[in-house]
Amino acid sequence: MLLDKKVRSQLDQKFKAELKRDVDIKIFSSAIISNPTGTDNKEYVQFTHDFLKELSEVSNKIKIEFLDMYGKEAKDLGISVSPSVFIGHDMGYSIQYWGAPAGYEASGFIETISMISRGESGLTTSSKEKLSNIDRNTVLEVYITPNCPHCPKAVLLANQLAVESPGKITSRCIEAQEVMDRARTFGVSSVPQQVINEDMDSITIGVQPETKFVNQVLRYGSSRAESILKNEEEKKKKMERLEDNPDYPVILTDETLDKAVAKYPFLVVDCWAEWCGPCRMVSPIIEKLAKDHQGDITFGKLDVDSNPASATRFGIRSIPNLLVFKDGKKVGDIIGAMPERQLLEKISTYR
């Protein structure tokens, strides 16, 4: 048994809370579960069969189908790796795992099941708007190894894009040690490594920030990419200017923060990072408050990853963290995500 009693209990709670729709999972291997002996990658095949079977025992919303990689369906899908796992194929998604989802990758695999069941990618509003313009079939390959703690995050991001653009974006997690010939083709020496449409020029190594990766995928997948990214850059430049009475959060940096503090009588700075889930919850609230309180409260946004000097200077250890400035002096911090009304009440205490 791969999943002990404690893990099964935790997964049971997670699946009951998060799984909304049935999720189909197909595993193609060089021998079906009833006859696992004498196959290529026997150990990996057996692990994958056992792992998926046990997941399906935890929740009846997980529907597992074991298939022969030499059968008709496998041939139609171009299967050449044993084991290969397809998640949500019957639901219109193209999310594939070439090789066993073992080690650290098992957690990301489970998160992907949950994401597909909910039908919600979890990407930012900006990323979703860009991906709505994907009009070309685009394949994202992420090369990983089971002992890489950073790889699941890279795979999950590619899977998020595939969920957001079903039928257009394919996400393919490739275990480099099991699919060694293909890994060599793309010179994989460090993981995670991303490749788009088998283009050597597209290769990136390491976990990519969401915005950067979405923009790169957009260049391959959308005929409108150039104009979309140009408009985005122009909008960003506008938001970086310290205009009088802005009705949007001003983008601040290590170089412009002090100027903003000196310029605006009452300034609230949202310190955030792209990887931070609670920050995403706060972001649309900040945008709304900036519009609703134009001329009264100025809001700013400071990416702590890109501006480490400011993060260190103000002792930011937890995000989201709102820095409140009044008449050029810092008067308080508001830490954590909260509803609009509660956030506004806390801001008002510093007036």
Give the class-level CATH name of the largest domain.
Alpha Beta
Mind summarizing the main beta sheet?
Answer: 8 strands, mixed
- Could you give the distance between the termini? 59 Å
Number of helices: 13
Radius of gyration: 23 Å
Fraction in beta strands: 15-25%
Decide which structural class fits the backbone: alpha/beta
- The CATH level-2 architecture of the largest domain is identified as 3-Layer(aba) Sandwich
Helix content: 40-55%
What is the H-and-E element order?
HEHEHEEHHEHEHEEHHEHEHEHEEH
Oligomer: single chain
- Tell me the number of strands: 13
CATH-defined topology of the largest domain? Glutaredoxin
Strand order within the widest beta sheet: 2-1-3-4-6-5-7-8
The dominant shape is elongated
Properties at a glance:
about 350 residues, alpha/beta, Glutaredoxin, 2 domains, 8-stranded mixed sheet, 5-stranded mixed sheet, 13 helices, 13 strands
Description:
- The chain is of the alpha/beta class and 351 residues long.
- The chain has two domains: 221 residues, Glutaredoxin; 108 residues, Glutaredoxin (3-Layer(aba) Sandwich), CATH 3.40.30.10.
- It has 13 helices and 13 strands.
- The protein has an eight-stranded mixed β-sheet with strand order 2-1-3-4-6-5-7-8. Strands 9-11-10-12-13 form a five-stranded mixed β-sheet, with helices on both faces.
- Strand 1, helix 2 and strand 2 form a beta-alpha-beta unit.
- The protein is elongated.
- The chain starts with a helix and ends with a helix.
- About 2% of the residues have low confidence.
